[in-house]
Amino acid sequence: MNGLTIGEPFELKDAVCDGRHTLALYGELDIVSAGELKDVLVEVTRDGTSSLILDLSGLTFMDSTGLYMVLFARELTERNGCDFSLIPGSPKIQRVFEVTGLLDVLPFQSDDAHGVCGTELRA
């Protein structure tokens, strides 16, 4: 045994409602899983979505690459003229935004603002 532990695999679910996408993220968002999220973000914003919400509540871990992906999502939505917001993660995930000074900069939704239509699993 080498002492390394394998974390929870990354999973992404895309709920689409009237041209709005909510990407629910599960497991670990890190350098290993960032490419998968990036591909979906590019596809969703290219398809003319009016709004993109990243739901971080299912994440168990996020590193600096995951933080970069959140900022990349914000940049893509701004460039493509669609709304962007975040559903907060656990205190552990929110701590990443706090220590980087982004907690009050990024558009986090309040707990009562969540609403989801249909869900489509993306592998």
Features:
3 helices; Transcription Regulator spoIIAA; 123 residues; globular
Output the strand order for the largest sheet. 4-3-2-1-5
Largest sheet entry? 5 strands, mixed
Which architecture would the CATH scheme give at its second level?
2-Layer Sandwich
Distance between the termini: 30 Å
Q: What's the pLDDT, averaged over the residues?
A: 88
Radius of gyration: 14 Å
CATH class: Alpha Beta
Overall geometric form: globular
Structural class: alpha/beta
Query: Could you give me the name of the CATH homologous superfamily?
Result: STAS domain
Query: How many structural units, i.e. domains?
Result: 1
**What's the total helix number?**
3
- Helical coverage, percent range: 25-40%
Query: What percentage of the residues does DSSP assign to strands (E)?
Result: 25-35%
| Uncertain regions spanning at least 5 consecutive residues | 119-123
CATH topology: Transcription Regulator spoIIAA
Order of helices and strands: EEHEHEHE
Number of beta-strand segments: 5
